[in-house]
Task: structure prediction
Amino acid sequence: MNTSIFEPAEWSAHERQDAAVTTICTPDMIPFPAGSTASTPHCGRVLHVVNGQHYAGAARVQDLLALKLPGCGFDVSFATLLPGRFESERRSQTPLHHIPMHGRLDLRPVRQLVHLIREGGFDLVHSHTTRSALVAAVAAAWAHVPYVHHVHCQMDTEVGRTLGSRANRTIEKQACRRADGVIAVSQSIAAFLRRHRFSKGPVSVVPNGVPAIDVRRPRRAEDPWVIGMVALLRERKGLETLLMALPALNRDHHVRLRIVGPFESDGYRNRMYDLSDSLGVTDLVDWTGYTPDVPTELNRMDALVLPSVLPEGMPMVLLEAMAAGVPVLGSRVDGITDVIEHERTGLLFEPGCPNSLAGQLLRLLRGQTNWQMLREAAHSQYRQHFSDAAMARGVARVYSRILVQREIKS
Result:
């Protein structure tokens, strides 16, 4: 039998049967072992192994957890594998150790991680990406500490990267099967993991969360409409769809488009600039580039659009817009549909379809959908389900369950 570096040399028939059926449960549904209670206090030190090159999406979740988990009894440190924005842009001031990883399959950081885990007295290791899972899973096993993997996206979906996506999926599946706990950021991700038999045990659904944000002022009727997009700009985010919808909007309304975020590559940036020129909308688009101050940008927008063409995890920017009282429009893909309830907390349109997006935006601009009611419902949804404190509590509960089980076994 072929085994991987993640997988025990021998799996019992019962374990292999478990691997075929994954139970989806939220943190409040996770049973604690016999002899413990849901209120059992548990504290510990957790090492989060992260990529480190970007400060968006999953990286922002990692930073928020470092800020909020101490209030739940868990101190956090980081090990970063790549140089980049995370170290300079993060808000948390927890210890950060840089352990360079040269290449996607470089296992040399494992030994350094094992030393760090032992010397730092860490009780648990937590990874968030395919790259970090590759080394974190092995290091946790060698150091004999529990391991948690956090799944932020459907890892086999990426434009033009079929071979790489398949490799990511294989690595992440092995990491999930090795993990003592698997966290999914949405029900869609959990269903994906169950459908493809990623995990031997239950998957804990802990929705992403964001801090409270000053709510955007009411818009004045005489002001131009400002439609915004905030993202790491790459092909999967669907910027083309938004640019192609813009001419239909500006025929009857004074509309400006505000694009916030860096381009992943110069080639993609040049293509988008050329597209806006060919559509005749260059003068209507403000390209702001990267900013660490997303709340200020959201308060300049009358609506936020996320036109992704592939499934998402649980987009942080949608949650931030809802927290800021900015109406949201998103494509009808997994992850976005976990956040937006059509015509109640936002508007949905067909992915990759400029006409569908333009139609939903025109409903908003013409008053056919009530702007104020939409933003109030979205803000209420944020308060109930998507705060950073709720996210930290969910993750802490997963940690506590794992550590209690470890104590009982020992």
Remarks:
- Confidence is low (pLDDT under 50) at residues 1-24, 30-41.
